[in-house]
User: Fold this.
Amino acid sequence: MPVGTAGTVKGIRFEELESPDLDARIILGNTYHLWLRPGIDVIKAAGGLHKFIGWDRAMLTDSGGFQVWSLGALRKITEEGTEFRSHVDGSLCFLSPEISMEVQAVLGAEIAMAFDECAPGEATHEEARRSMELTLRWARRSKEAFEKAGRDAGEPQAGMPAIQRQALFGIIQGASHLDLRRESLERTVEIDFDGYAIGGLSVGEEKHLMMEVIQEIAPRMPADKPRYLMGVGTPEDLIEAVARGVDMFDCVLPTRNGRNGQAFTSRGKLNIKNARYTTDEKPLDEACHCSVCRRHSRAFIRHLYQSGEMVASILLTHHNLAFFLDTMKRVRQAIRSDQFANFRREYTEQLNSGLES
Assistant:
């Protein structure tokens, strides 16, 4: 899922996301940011987030829990919820499972997330348990508030077919402690959500710890419901997580790195700021068939970037999203044709082969 924090995927128009070049079927919106600005009343008056932003395809909204957690010293977590200072105007705000569900009901994305508390990757066992227990209590409150919000809107969430109603996903926490992760999964599944997410990874822990958690937890997640790995990751992360049973991902890397002059390619990352590309007439990725690679050279895109032209970030963002979305398309094709093991080996070998000089 390309990340659309404030209701837009940075650096690219929806027409491009919908084009055959990218064909993004679902994007992610950020509850915390949209709640603070433009505000829920503005979006409600427009008829929900889809109408407000002009996006007719699927969306997932996160709960706001991670953004509030990332405020660090600016927030105070209690049993009731989280008190924090708005990054927009400094005003005192309060977000709880009930408020998060109310906001996400108004946003109206196809998938909403339960409100959770994220422990840092290096959290001790005691700290991680405390955080996990709070997340579980908040998960129950989230589901109760979610179903109430549906009933109040005249949509009996629990009684409707899944395809006709907003879905709610639960989040598994426990930092890097595998016993806590297993317990969190078991107790979250007992609450009964429409899908399940592995949260609290890619928050500072070492890569091998992240993969250990995924290896331990993903195969144990219900096979008949979506398995979502939040906030991850690089192309190699996606391939390795799929191999361990994950279905869904979101990450800001394609867009953020594009704005900072970095292109993802089939042979690894390319930094367009490097002087070696000044006269390089090859496309960003010779194996890529996106419209940027079909039309523009590395030399031209480097010239645009060095000149401060905004279109450089737009072109790099388009290519990166094309690369990530095409990677996942190829993953689906490989799984359908029972060739994923071969695909994984060949893709990883090529990715590690390095850019040609």
Remarks:
- The radius of gyration is 21 Å.
- The chain has a mean pLDDT of 94.
